[in-house]
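Hi support team,

I'm opening this ticket because the web form for multi-chain structure prediction keeps timing out on my end. I have pasted the exact lines I submitted so you can reproduce it. The total is 626 residues across four entries, so I didn't expect it to be a heavy job. Is there a limit I'm missing, or should I split the entries? Thanks in advance, R.K.
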Amino acid sequence: MNLQQLRYAAEVGRRGLNVSEAASALHTSQPGVSKQLRALEEELGAEIFVRQGRRLTAVTEAGREILAGIGRILAEIANLRVVGEEHANQARGNLVLAVTHTQARYALPKVVTAFKRRFPEVHLKILQGSPHDLAKAVVDGEADIAIATEALAGYGELVSVPAYQWHHGVVVPAGHALEREKPLTLEAIARYPIVTYDASYTGRSAIDRSFARRGLEPEIALTALDSDVIKSYAGLGLGVGIISAMAYDAQKDRALALLPADHLFPVQTTRVAFRRGARLRGFAAEFIGMFVPHLTREAVGRLARGGGDDFVI
Amino acid sequence: MNLQQLRYAAEVGRRGLNVSEAASALHTSQPGVSKQLRALEEELGAEIFVRQGRRLTAVTEAGREILAGIGRILAEIANLRVVGEEHANQARGNLVLAVTHTQARYALPKVVTAFKRRFPEVHLKILQGSPHDLAKAVVDGEADIAIATEALAGYGELVSVPAYQWHHGVVVPAGHALEREKPLTLEAIARYPIVTYDASYTGRSAIDRSFARRGLEPEIALTALDSDVIKSYAGLGLGVGIISAMAYDAQKDRALALLPADHLFPVQTTRVAFRRGARLRGFAAEFIGMFVPHLTREAVGRLARGGGDDFVI
DNA sequence: GACGCTTACGTTCGTCGTAACTATT
DNA sequence: AATAGTTACGACGAACGTAAGCGTC
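Hello R.K., no limit was hit. The queue was backed up. Here is the completed structure from your submission:
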């Protein structure tokens, strides 16, 4: 058995049992991967994949367990490298953040600025995507830290902690009839077409639930992945915008009015997540500490080693 | 990086930083181990061992973390093999028990018999040693399950569960003066020399504490590792024996009298332990289930995956 | 001088990539 | 016919063991 075989098996598992694709992703030949897979199965005395003719069609019972173990092994290998990097230079390295657009645009700038001042030699990379993409990126080791309001708490492979809370707000063109609606109600909003986040982004599920609970079925005129796009179309009069209140800037968004909606939609909790068992770089733990009030770098380490359970709000 | 390098580093760490000894234990050449160690350190970018001249004298800060990670990796590799073995034949394999003499002689026979009837193809091996030896054997992967009354709960690398409780008893030659002492007291016992277990065996620490708490300092005439030896010498009149009550057999030990001492010494709890995170063979979990009442095979699996904490009585 | 790690070197084994082959869609 | 995986084979490289070298105790 060798590490290469484990990497190959893991990649094949991740790539939907497609050996050729895995080989190409690993920058090696397909026959090589195929052969090493067989050798691994041979040595373990258990088939990992079910073969129909010459194709891999499923993962066996034992295979599931084996792939899970391989995942843990490769994660620990990655941790070893992290220890080495940390040792080489505590203040230099790469930090990959996987965040939603709203976070990148409105929540991160302040922390990122402070972080960069403190760790000028750390190269920051910000990946964007849907909350599920972000979670997957962290699970697969492509990103170190994910920040999002949705989905993160649902992954057992991740440790997630609540970072801060916020509310949705309603944005309309200045002078819109809704501005005179006091107090603002869901019923009043539902009379207009809605422009808001795409499904599974930035608290969208909470918005839908709030309307549904009152028996309302507002027309969703347009959905987008980011608050800026939604603001633009709300400004064009395509509909009433529902965005994260922190995405409204009284200065820059003078053409729009923000109507507070704290009483209409539930409070949202943005969470920070990283891989369970991951050996985070010191500055990565520090970043989390800077982003989440009252969470020390040491506490982050403890969470990673996994008291096992999520920090519950 | 490859697995061989990790095995080498782990072995050197375990063998007190002696490369030659590690090489010989691994059935390979010393220069090979030395070179691979350097290669690993080189690749990780961190020294694992401190060198003074040509000798390894200590483990570095980073090295401690790295060796810990390597330990987890090698344990997971072992788990992969276990999955393979399980797949090959659920009812065949090896089960290594590490137990103290008292357990082997008086607690195990019934369970072992039942186990063998149920899994005739499983080869059972019973290792003996001091509780600390047993714990070490399991931590190092030399044994699957340890059973002892002392020490086990003190190892973070082990998951331990209470199996059953018992009391010490006093054995004296039939007709001994102590037989007429009713109720039996520690003071009365302390008037005679004592024959009992060696330090750190089978509840010896509790015996010492009981006397000490009453300000008594009995003369320990002789200590031994096993109950049978103690019984022999107590029978010869060398002193009053204090052994596990279950080690007294009214039939076979007719020359001795057992004086109950439940009220003199605290109740003892024998524990069963296995490596945290270990993927036990099905029959191993089953064995634990047979030994520990009310513990199902599934519960054992859950414990291994580590809700993290010991089962508390 | 004995022990213990490192350096040097030649052999061997394993891994990789190319090419040809076979089976499935 | 195209896609996907296996078998075959030759080349390269890495790891191993032996032998010699260098520092320590």
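A quick check on our side: Chain A has eleven helices and twelve strands. Let us know if the file doesn't open in your viewer.
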